[in-house]
Specification:
Helix content: 40-55%
Number of strands: 6
Number of helices: 18
Strand content: 5-15%
Structural class: mainly alpha
Oligomer: single chain
Order of helices and strands: EEEHEEEHHHHHHHHHHHHHHHHH
Strand order of the largest sheet: 1-2-3
Distance between the termini: 60 Å
Bound molecules: acetyl coenzyme *A
Largest sheet: 3 strands, antiparallel
């Protein structure tokens, strides 16, 4: 990092602050001494101009539609890599050798079972509980089971907890699904791939053999790669903030899952498919585009727009291609895909969406594939959480390893009453 200087005049005096440069991307002005020198805070609700940390994991250029993990473009990773390899890359910084990859995959495979006592937790939930509600509870509960990997000051324990979280998330998500449909839990099998194992734990029943379809396995693996990490998004920032107090990793990831659930974030894939179902046929699209543009109507095109991407989300490009592959392999068609393609075409030629730089995001097409594979909409965000877990733990670990790490504690612009005296209830 090279340090330059920036000068800010707060109306009373000029203050000089350092400017830091990363390897790529915008420079940042280091305002850490601003309050001490001026008695003033910066004001940035929604953190639209605030870099909260240093990170060497993921880079996004939203204007150009670029997404890099450890320097590698997401398109290349999605086409040529595997989710296990991307997990290794995110956790260790470099692509693994063949031996390192097989050792890592073996380690993850060996951690896929959950403590048998944990399965009892599920029975405490209503059968119609949303899988994300179950995920929040069960992942948080992991800290009550794996005490030997909650000492965050020990790098080895941090590594084990990362492996455990990545490995157990498919088991936990599949169990949430099984519970909701009233079928028995299916235990993991070590001879299957990470993604093949998840498909089997989700869709197999004890009454018959289940064969993993390799095209579906590859498509889902690619979806996991596309969701692996995304810089300092809301859920990742939540994980970092929770972790900044020294909370254990299982509790921090549970916090990330809670944040991801919202429809403005990970819940958008479920909301996007529900929206496409509501629109139904292409002839109804203009009505919904008009609603999305109407300031007095809260309706938004779900799966459209992004805080950072002001260009086509590179993940949506891969996702659209994957829909075609899955449909061809499964020999299915879905009129909603035609509706989605037409909606994209109409929106991208509409001045409202052009001017505001609103493009399809990763969630626009993911629901169509997941639904073709057989997942109910309620599972979509749980799948996102499963895949994002590697990003969350890598970011959490990066933060804990940083010697300059501090508890996250933003300030505020107070707009409440000034100090006043308490009035007894008899005098009010
Ligand atoms: N449909 C219609 N108008 C939209 C949409 C949309 N999907 N998204 C943004 N706009 C408009 C807003 O009304 C606003 O207009 P204005 O400037 O006239 O007030 C302008 O575009 C900017 O929108 P903001 O909400 O200020 O942008 P922000 O960066 O805060 O929000 C967000 C980004 C939350 C993703 C937003 O685009 C949205 O709600 N999209 C739909 C939900 C969605 O798809 N979320 C998934 C995000 S990706 C992910 O989490 C994996």
């Amino acid at each position: 990092m090279s340090d330059n200087l920036a000068t800010l005049n707060d109306g009373t005096k000029a203050i000089t602050m350092g400017v830091k440069s990363g390897t790529i991307g915008p420079d940042v002005i280091d305002i850490r001494k601003l309050y001490a020198e001026t008695g003033k805070f910066t004001y940035d609700p929604g953190f639209t101009s605030t870099a909260s940390c240093d990170s060497a994991l993921t880079y996004i250029d939203g204007d150009e539609g670029v997404l890099l993990h450890r320097g590698y473009p997401i398109g290349q990773l999605a086409e040529q890599s595997s989710f296990m390899e991307v997990c290794y890359l995110m956790l260790n910084g470099e692509l693994p050798s063949a031996d390192e990859l097989s050792q890592f995959s073996r380690t993850i495979t060996r951690h896929t079972m959950v403590h048998e006592q944990l399965s009892v937790f599920y029975r405490g939930f209503r059968r119609d509980a949303h899988p994300m509600a179950i995920m929040c509870g069960v992942v948080g509960a992991l800290s009550a089971f794996y005490h030997d990997s909650t000492d965050i000051s020990d790098p080895e324990q941090r590594k084990i907890s990362a492996h455990r979280l990545i490995a157990k998330m498919p088991t936990i998500a599949a169990m949430a699904f099984k519970y909701s449909v009233g079928q028995p839990f299916v235990y993991p099998r070590n001879d299957l791939s990470y993604t093949g194992n998840f498909l089997r734990m989700t869709f197999a029943v004890p009454a018959e053999e289940y064969e993993v379809n390799p095209v579906v396995e590859r498509a889902l693996d690619r979806i996991f790669i596309l969701h692996a990490d995304h810089e300092q998004n809301a859920s990742t920032s939540t994980v970092r903030l929770a972790g900044s107090s020294g909370a254990n990793p299982f509790a921090c990831i549970a916090a990330g899952i809670a944040c991801l659930w919202g429809p403005a974030h990970g819940g958008a894939n479920e909301a996007a498919l529900n929206m496409l179902k509501e629109i139904g046929t292409p002839d109804r699209i203009p009505h919904y585009i008009a609603r999305a543009k109407d300031k007095n109507d809260p309706f938004r095109l779900m799966g459209f727009g992004h805080r950072v991407y002001k260009n086509y989300d590179p993940r949506a490009t891969v996702m659209q291609k994957t829909v075609r592959e899955v449909f061809e392999s499964l020999k299915v068609t879905d009129p909603l895909f035609e509706t989605a393609l037409r909606l994209e075409e109409l929106a991208l030629s509409d001045p409202y969406f052009i001017d505001k730089k609103l493009f399809p995001n990763v969630d626009f097409y993911s629901g169509i594939i997941l639904s073709a594979i057989g997942f109910p909409t309620t599972m979509f965000t749980a799948l996102f959480a499963l895949a994002r877990t590697v990003g969350w733990v890598a970011q959490w670990n990066e933060m804990i390893s940083d010697p300059g790490q501090k508890i996250g504690r933003p300030r505020q612009l107070y707009t409440g009453p000034v100090q006043r005296d308490y009035v007894p209830v008899s005098e009010r």
